Amino acid sequence: MSEIHSPFLSACRREATDVTPVWLMRQAGRYQASYRAIRAKYSMLELCQTPEAVVEVTLLPVHQFGVDAAILFSDITIPFLGMEVDFDIAPGVGPVIEQPLKNAEDVAGLREYVAGERLPFIAESVQLLKKELNVPLIGFAGAPFTLAAYLIEGKPSKDFKKVRQFMFTQPAAWNSLMEFLTKVTVDYLALQVQAGADVVQLFDSWIGALHPNFYRQYMLPHMSLLFSEVKKLGVPSVHFGTGTASLLSVMKEAGGDVIGVDWRTPLGESWKGLRYECGIQGNLDPAVLFASRDMIQSEIDRILDEAAGRSGHIFNLGHGVLPGTPEENVKFVVDYVHERSSR
User: Fold this and answer.
1) Residues designated as active site
2) What does the alpha-carbon distance between residue 71 and residue 28 come to, in Å, rounded to a whole number?
3) Which of 18, 148, 280, 285 is the most exposed place for a label (fewest CB within 10 A)?
4) DSSP string spanning 110-152?
5) What is the 8-class DSSP label of residue 219?
6) Per CATH, which fold does 23-282 belong to?
């Protein structure tokens, strides 16, 4: 990939680019008719374990919209397969865990495994994609807190009460769980990089449930270790969470070449608070893609103006593309970001 000119990779390294690179979280998904046609043949877990289908889905937005990076189509819960956790991804609900973790004994019962042995379809998918792509490929994983949230809550939650109670009342078990999930996550990301991924992104979707003091106490040691190990893989890393306006500085302390910000926080203000010492990714509100072209254009202009042409900005949404999003508006975003930023 280093031999191919890539504004995305350059931005990850905070190098100057001729155009602001753009890709979108969940850029392959239910809003696309072409995705829905493929998805009709598989359950979500079946699709994620079928390399030929993963390749087909991953390539859809690259060919349709001209994004500057592809992201491996998968799900953050796939490492649960290696742990032999009994779960499913329920339509309209998300991950549902048959027997949520309740105590130290449950944590000790999680199976240790080698990702390359238990999840070979991940490496195969990456290797096949690298033969097809002329843009960088992003590998990814769920962060330990977010994985723990599913394992303990048993399903998506609005307040993450159970995971926080576990963390506060069983700190030794929590620490053991974080050590286990950190090791699993590093191994999983290493598998993707060794297979050819050019960048990795860590999704900490639910970390915004924590106060900064609790992040520092319960998460920072594990996240710092995770990113120090990821750094050894030799590829750039993106550190993303939602609801993280108060956590950005401690997330930066944990690590990541690029910090992703959601739509709730002004990008320029966030980057200034990070002292421009890392790249930044974001952060158009996904719901804006349902609005008029004038509003979409105005919001893109605002975000690009906040970035002020500094090296290291990767344009993205503040979270994933929403179901029902007009496909033509996704194409408009990519084209307009390229056109506006290259002036």
Assistant:
1) 26, 30, 39, 75, 150
2) 9
3) 18
4) SPP--HHHH-HHHHHHHHHHHHH-SS-EEEEEE-HHHHHHHHH
5) I
6) TIM Barrel (3.20.20)
Nearest to 77 by CA among 175, 13, 154: 154
Residues 76-121 have pLDDT tens digits of 999 999 999 999 998 888 899 999 999 999 999 999 999 999 999 9
Q: 242 CB contacts (<8 Å, ≥6 apart)?
A: 205, 206, 207, 208, 262, 318, 319
3-class DSSP state of 229: helix
Q: What is the 3-state secondary structure (H, E, C) of 147-179?
A: HHHHHHHCCCCCCCHHHHHHHHHCHHHHHHHHH
Q: What's the whole-number mean pLDDT along residues 297-303?
A: 98
Domain boundaries, the chain: 23-282
Please state the pTM of the whole predicted model: 0.96
